[in-house]
Amino acid sequence: MTERAAFPLFPHRHLLGVKDLSPSDIELLLDRADEAVAISRQSEKKTSTLRGRTQINLFYEASTRTQSSFELAGKRLGADVMNMSVSSSSVKKGETLIDTAMTLNAMRPDILIIRHASAGAAALLAQKVGCSVVNAGDGAHEHPTQALLDALTIRRARGKIARLTVAICGDVRHSRVARSNILLLNALGARVRVVAPSTLLPAGIGEMGVEVFTTMKEGLAGADVVMMLRLQRERMEGAFVPSVREYFRYFGLDAEKLKAAKDDALVMHPGPMNRGVEIASEIADGPQSVIQEQVEMGVAVRMAVMEALLDPRRNPEGQAA
Ligand code: CP
């Protein structure tokens, strides 16, 4: 069993969004996550940091990366992890989110990880339950651990975030990943651009501290990082793009469009990817892609977050003891 080093106390009981985090909160989580990467690369991956603690994963929306990495993260920290199967639960009989959460809360978990289609679901739960809550994605609102793992991937590849130019491209309008990344990258001093057809840009995007582009050639010019987003058809009501073929022609990342960015620009995608829609396979699997590194950093960041939230120096009410 590997014991973890002491870090400063993280000043939050829940992780509901990047908007609640200061630059030093973010750096603290990234520093903790760096240590978790080293642990995950050892043959002995298990620590005792969360031994005796109970983690419940409550996913109302499909997930491959986030749910499995939260489960692995909890297990590597020594917690007891339960994956609540929403599809075979009493949710199917009409039980509300709050009733389900209160039922689970009565079993005295220490941390609840929630993904839900409604913006604000995680914040609502945090007001009702007696344990820490982590937002694993709420509608088109926030996905804070995705932004943290993206930042960790960039920081490890480039040694810094400040003053890098990051182009976030695609369906910004429906993307919680874009929103959390814009908040986090701005907090750490990056120059953030968004690149999308005007139909896929949310109202008021210019007030989020980003430069807005509607062509890939201009938006990618000289970029250090190109972050592609999935076309989120499940959140679209009506047609936002004329056709997938047309979308790929103008906004899909291929070798020709990538030439506009720096020669060594990092290519990122949070997954799941639609190959041939927002990214060409040759780029997703190519030498500039750090998509698999993002997945690895996901486990480390989630270890760091849970460890920070459940710091034993805090009392059961979440205050510093
Ligand atoms: N990036 C992300 O949230 O992936 P999943 O939907 O597979 O969890």
TrEMBL record:
PROSITE patterns: CARBAMOYLTRANSFERASE. It catalyses: carbamoyl phosphate + L-aspartate = N-carbamoyl-L-aspartate + phosphate + H(+). Pathway: Pyrimidine metabolism; UMP biosynthesis via de novo pathway; (S)-dihydroorotate from bicarbonate: step 2/3. Its EC number is 2.1.3.2. Keywords: Pyrimidine biosynthesis, Transferase. GO terms for molecular function: aspartate carbamoyltransferase activity. Belongs to the aspartate/ornithine carbamoyltransferase superfamily. ATCase family. Reversibly catalyzes the transfer of the carbamoyl group from carbamoyl phosphate (CP) to the N(epsilon) atom of ornithine (ORN) to produce L-citrulline. This is Aspartate carbamoyltransferase. It comes from Neoaquamicrobium sediminum. The gene is pyrB.
